[in-house]
Amino acid sequence: MAVDSNGVVSPAADEVLLVTSGDLRLAANQVCWPAQRDMEEKLTAAFAKQGIKLVRAHAYDETLKHGFISSQRRGMDVFMSIHPDARLVFATAAWQYSHHVLPGLRSHKGPVLTVANWSGQWPGLVGLLNLNGSLIKAGREFSSIWSKDFTDDYFVSALVEWLREGKITHDVSHVKPLTAAHLPVESAALGAGLARELKHRKAILGVFDEGCMGMYNAIIDDELLNPAGIYKERLSQSALVAKMRAVSFAEAEAVYSWLVAKGMKFAFGTDFATELTLDQVLEQCKMYIAAVRIAKDFGCDTIGIQYQQGLKDMTPASDLAEGLLNNADRPPVFAQGTREELYPGGPLPHFNEVDECAGVDALVTNRCWTALGLDPSTTLHDVRWGEHYQGDGIDDFVWLLQISGAAPANHFVGGYAGARSERQPAMYFPLGGGSLKGIGKPGEIVWSRVFIEGGALHVDIGRGTVVTLPQEETDRRWRETTPPWPIVHTVLHGVSQNQMMARHRANHVNIAYAPSAQVAEKALATKAAMFAELGVTVHLCGNALEG
Hints:
CATH superfamily of the largest domain: L-fucose/L-arabinose isomerase, C-terminal
Helix content: 25-40%
Number of domains: 2
Oligomer: single chain
Shape: globular
Radius of gyration: 23 Å
CATH architecture of the largest domain: Alpha-Beta Barrel
C-alpha cells in the first residue's frame, strides 16, 4: 500500500479498502461495534481465501470506543485519503446513516461493493438496503452481497465475480414491466380514474423535518412529486411539540381510556429512565392529537414524523401516535375547543421516519383500498431479516417485517385487544415512550415500494401471505430482533430471498391487507393502474397478477 504526499492511500493489486458507516448516536455505535468487528473479521478471512487483503480505510477510535464513520464530515475526510480508483468495500452489521458515506461514494470512481451480515439482532440488512436505495437514487453503480457467515456458496461465488469483473450479476428475473395486458379492464379504469381525481384535487404530504436518519433514498424532489398531483407542506417538529402543549391532560386521558377500553395492554413500570410509565403514554396521546390537528390546519392528506433525531430529546417516542394514525379504527380527535371530529371514519396515513416514498405509497393505497371498500389501514415495515421455516404446513422462506411500533392495530391478531405497548430502548429514547406491538394477522397482503431511479419515480409491487408461526418460533424471532416492536411473518409470492435483496430499492416496504387472494390481486391491479396514470413506472414482482 502506497501513501502519496497528500496522504492519499493507493492499495496494492492484492488489497481492497473497507469503510463502514454508523449511527449519529454514540451509544448505538458502541453497542453495535462488537458485531461490526466480528463481521469484519469474517469478511477479512473470506477475502484472504481469495488472496486479497482487506484493509480498513479508517481506524478504530480509542476515545469513542468504535470504528464507525459517525458523521457526514468525518466521512468526507476519510474519502479524501482514499484513491478514487481503489476497489472499495462498504460493510455494515448495524443500522447506519447513509449520508455519512454517500458524498464519498458518489465521487469515487473505482468498483464499490456493499456488504451486510444476515442477522436479525444486528440490522445490517436494513442499513445495507438503505444505502443501496440511496446509491440507486444517486445514479452511482455498485454491487451488493449479504451472508450469515461469509462462507456460503452464494456469497463466495459473488465475491469471486466481483474481484474478477468488478461487478456482481444477481437473478432479478422476478421483475417484469407493467403492460396494459396485465390489467383487468375494471381495475384499469378505476385506478386511472382515481389518479385523475388526485391530479384534479391535489394532495399534500405533511413533512415534519425532512431527511430523517440519513435516508437520502426517502426524499422525493418536488419536480418528481408535483406532476403526480402531490405537494409537500414542510412542517417543523418544534411546532408539533408546541401543539402538544396546547392539548389538555383530559384529552390525552380520553385517548388512553379509549385504548384501554379496546383491550390494549401497557407494560408499565416505575423507573422513568428504563421503563414505560403512564406519563410517557399520556404525552404520546398528546402527540397523536397534536399531529391530527396540525394536519387539519394545513389540509394534509398524509403526514410523516421524523421519529428520532431532535424529537427524542423533547418528547417520548412517536411510535404509538403513528400506529394510531395509520389505523382505520382510532380514538376520535376533535378540533381544539370544539366537538368537530377531524378526519373521521378512517386513518390519517402516516409515513414513519418521514419516508416520502412510503408516504406517496400510503396515499395511493388509501385511495385504492377505500374505493374498493377495503380496510385502508396501511404501514411501512423494515425488511428486517428472515429464515426458511419448515413445519405447520409451511415450507418456505419467511421474512420478518418489523417497524418501531407505527403499525396499525387492524394488522394484528386480535386488533387492539392483541396489542401491547412496551418501552422503546433507552439508548435511543431517553424520554421513553411505548410502541404499538402485535403479531401480524394471517392473510393476504399487497406489498410495494416507491423509489427513485434514473431521475424518475418507480414502484415495485407484489403480493404476499402473512403466515402464522408457533408462538415459540415467534418469540424466538422477537428475541433475535427487537422485542418491543410489532412483527409480521411474511412469504412473498414468486420472489426468493436473494432476488428480494438484489432488487429491493429501500430499507422499507409498504403493506396493506386484502380479505382473499382474489381481492388482493384486484387491489394490486387497481393500485398499479393508479400509479401508471400518475406517471410512475410500475414493476410487477413475482406472481403479482398470476393468480
